[in-house]
Amino acid sequence: MGIFSGVEILFFFLGMLTAAGIAGLAALKLKYAAGWKTLSMCAAGLALVLFTIAWSVSSILEREHQAANMGVVFFGLPGILLLGMALKQIFTKKVAE
Predict the structure, then answer these.
(1) Which of 20, 46, 63, 72 has the fewest CB atoms lying closer than 10 Å?
(2) What is the pTM (predicted TM-score) of this model?
(3) 93 alpha carbon, distance to own chain's centre
């Protein structure tokens, strides 16, 4: 197959996305002065999205395509909704001030 297996590549990209997400949360805290409630919503949404990516890719690697699709529905959609609500709170608060 090659030097790296699919799981190793998955964990590499998950590590990069986690580092980028933490840096993004820190930037939101500094630039927009987001509160802890909003940042915790962002962190929960980010964690759900990362979990969805891990769940779906590992399910596809194990040839369980239905589990991958259901993982996107049950974990990805709430993660995207949490991120959307939190980011809307952050950006409308900045505009209001």
Answers:
(1) 63
(2) 0.84
(3) 22
